[in-house]
Amino acid sequence: MSTGTERNKTEDQTVTGTLDTPVTTESLPKVRGSLPRWATAAILAGSLVVVGAVLAATGFSVGLWIVLSAVLFAVVTYVTSRVVEGRRKAVDRLVTVLVTGAFLLAMIPLVSVLFTVISQGWARFDPQFFNSSMRGVVGEGGGALHAIQGTLIITALAAVLSIPVGALTAVYLVEYGNNSRLARAITFFVDVMTGIPSIVAGLFAYALFALILGPGVRLGIVGAVALTVLMIPIVVRATEEMLKIVPNELREASYALGVPKWRTILKVVIPTTAGGIATGIMLAIARVIGETAPLLVTVGTALGVNLNPFDGRMATLPVFAYYSYAVPGVPREPFIDRAWTAALVLMLIVMVLNIVARLISRVFAPKTR
């Protein structure tokens, strides 16, 4: 007993001695300073001024000015932060500059395309463009009513054909496939279909209907089938990924209550991911609505309104814009204006579809509260 007591006293004295040891400033890590908030703006402004002054003397170029200013800004930021704040903070600032620069670089073509299409297409963005066709028009005037209607009809038919096939295929792969040989084969072919060129889908649809109806067939339904070939793999992939993120605990809880598997899929699994599935479908529609090559082969073009996809050629916005720009009449300017306005309308339709997809995703998203 005495030995244990003496040992405890010794340990207490050791701990006490360690805690009572005075802490000096030399034993503490050195605390680095930090750059003020205005330092980044000041360095950027200085880089722009310095590079602009150098280029003004040698030959000014806006693109070269921006690139060299960005490089100088990154170097000066890193060196200044390394001296004041240390290596870790300097590397963090450098990576932030590189990531921000990459983002701005990626935004340049997007902003350029938006600016060009809006500025060029605004000239014919008038009521006549939306309520008249090109029937009997050889110069100025006319519109793209027939092309807008054709685009909406063919895209709607493609959605009706592809959404059930793609969604049910994804349900089979996730819920019933169990990595079987058939499931692996379907996955392989879906991956292959994802990467096929759009013109191949158009040639496939044309060859299929040419065997049935004869060569030279041009119908709206043929274009819808071509777009369906392009839409199905996108719908399958989007739906499959959404179904995979459903926790297995939800399925097991439903099975524990005696609910059959098909009813569990309809009442538990699909409603849980309805927002994500709807978003994927809308993005698939936005992906194919601007396709030109397959519609050139399968649908052709028309000057007047044709609302029957099973009878004759139909006009679509991508093909309308292509022919207006590639084969303009005389004078050339009205055709070019109509081509830019058709591109603007097509871009607006795609934007609306993306907005609708986000709204659907927000409405059907699982409630966390």
Outline:
The chain crosses the membrane at residues 38-56, 62-81, 93-118, 152-174, 186-213, 219-236, 268-289, 339-360. With 369 residues, the protein is mostly helical. 74% of the residues lie in helices and 0% in strands.
Give the secondary structure arrangement, pairings included.
Elements: H1 2-20, H2 39-58, H3 62-84, H4 87-121, H5 127-131, H6 145-176, H7 181-194, H8 198-213, H9 220-244, H10 248-256, H11 261-272, H12 274-288, H13 293-298, H14 317-326, H15 333-364
Helix pairs in contact: 2-3, 3-4, 4-15, 6-9, 6-12, 6-14, 7-9, 8-9, 9-12, 10-11, 12-15, 14-15
InterPro entries: MetI-like, MetI-like_sf, Phosphate_PstA, Phosphate_transprt_permease
Transmembrane segments: 38-56, 62-81, 93-118, 152-174, 186-213, 219-236, 268-289, 339-360
Subcellular location: Cell membrane
Tags for this entry?
369 residues; mainly alpha; MetI-like fold; 2 domains; 15 helices; flat
Structure description:
Belongs to the binding-protein-dependent transport system permease family. CysTW subfamily. There is one protein chain. The chain is an all-alpha fold. It folds into 2 domains: 90 residues, no CATH class; 235 residues, MetI-like fold (Orthogonal Bundle), CATH 1.10.3720. 74% of the residues lie in helices and 0% in strands. α8 packs across α9 and α14 packs antiparallel against α15. It is flat, with a radius of gyration of 32 Å. 30% of the residues are buried. About 5% of the residues have low confidence.
